[in-house]
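Can anyone check this?
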Amino acid sequence: QVQLAESGGGLVQAGESLRLSCTISGLTSGSYIMGWFRQAPRKEREFVAAIGWGNGRADYSNSVDGRVAISRDHAKSAVLLQMDGLKPEDTALYYCAVRSGPFVDPLPRSARQYHYWGQGTQVTVSS
């Protein structure tokens, strides 16, 4: 069973940075895509970024492109999300997700295409 645990959220001021981490257990030798999503109050869950676990290919939402970098650490079985230049509109609960199965191109952006989810870590950006 794949299990995910996010960490690294917090309260920051606009313009500051945060690095979110997602530790993943239960991965086998299969193919995976890792994604980060976020959900603000009264809004739909929104795609932020995704990365192929094997090939490292990444994709980003237009709303964060240029301010966010996703990476993976095989040794620590973790996916990282570096966020710079944070804005108040980035305030949300951030979720890590895993899709199990063959690599697909383009990387999936719909939450329905991911099979495993963490509990989320809160990011709050004050103006």
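Reply from J.R.: I decoded it. The mean pLDDT is 95.
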